[in-house]
Specification:
- The chain has about 260 residues and is an alpha/beta fold.
- It has eight helices and nine strands.
- It has helices spanning about 25-40, 50-65, 85-100, 145-155, 170-180, 195-205, 235-245, 250-260, and strands at about 5, 10-15, 20, 40-45, 75-80, 105-110, 160-165, 185-190, 210-215.
- The strands form two sheets. A seven-stranded parallel beta sheet has the order 3-4-5-6-7-8-9. The chain has a two-stranded antiparallel ribbon with strand order 1-2.
- The longest helix is centred in the middle third of the chain and has 15 residues, at about 85-100.
């Protein structure tokens, strides 16, 4: 599978990955196992997805069956908003590694640039966006504190690479001012309805790899009721025409757009 080389570590990251958002606990182990069997080597998870333990079970089964070795896989996870304080970053990262049953992540991202009030994992995990009363409680933890703690994860070999998710240019530039280890990857929503050309160009300027999520656009949000009625990119007349012209399937075109 094609890959790109990350700037600081020179590690190869596959250009296509298997996302674990919305994969149910009951199906996740089998889904991950079958994804690896089908050829996927990048698995994109997060603490907020609530399925890391099951994802790890799929990984262990694939390794036990000889499909892959751990070093063949590129496993991404993410730091949730309630763990942005310095002392909580390492704590939750170790817990997430334990759920996966692995010694290190290949990439660990700050999931959102939003610090929320700490929720003890023994009380509720994943904590999600809301407190027990259904309200959102922010916390005054600056990004430079969180990023410094992320860098310590690298020093302690808990992750090989660190990066950002759901961030815009101003915050990326802020992190670059004080970073000992610059962000290797930015993960954002990216598809023909949301091309974010200026942001992608900024990342290229600083050699930050861009990972696209929700590459099929509104298709990712239908079951959540927030697709806003936008025509599916899988059947849109433009993507359908391009796909037919080049002898490709409708789902191929949005993915190609994300790689260009």
């Amino acid at each position: 599978m094609a890959s790109i080389v990350l700037k600081r570590t020179q590690q190869k990251m596959p250009v296509v990955g298997f996302g674990l958002w919305k994969v149910t606990k009951s199906t996740c182990a089998d889904t991950v196992y079958n994804a690896i069997k089908a050829g996927y080597r990048l698995l994109d998870g997060a603490g907020d997805y609530g399925n890391e333990k099951e994802a790890g079970e799929g990984v262990r089964r694939a390794i036990a069956d000889g499909l892959v070795k751990r070093e063949d896989l590129f496993i991404t996870s993410k730091l949730w908003n309630t763990f942005h304080a310095h002392d909580h970053v390492k704590q939750i990262t170790k817990m997430q590694l334990g759920l996966w049953g692995i010694d290190y992540f290949d990439l660990f991202l700050v999931h959102f640039p939003v610090a929320l009030k700490y929720v003890d994992p023994s009380h509720r995990y994943p904590p999600e966006w809301f407190g027990d009363d259904g309200k959102v409680y922010t916390q005054n933890t600056p990004m430079h504190e969180t990023w410094g703690a992320m860098e310590e994860l690298v020093d302690e070999k808990l992750t090989k690479n660190i990066g950002l998710s759901n961030c815009q240019g101003s915050l990326i530039l802020d992190v670059l001012r004080y970073a000992k280890y610059e962000p290797q990857v930015l993960q954002v929503e990216l598809h023909p309805y949301l091309t974010q050309e200026a942001l992608v160009k900024l990342c290229k300027t600083f050699s930050i790899a861009v990972t696209a999520y929700s590459s099929f656009g509104p298709q990712s949000y239908v079951e959540l009721g927030v697709d806003k009625g936008a025509p599916s990119l899988l059947t849109h007349n433009v993507t359908s025409t391009v796909a037919k012209t080049h002898g490709k399937s409708g789902c191929t075109i949005p993915l190609i757009c994300d790689e260009t």
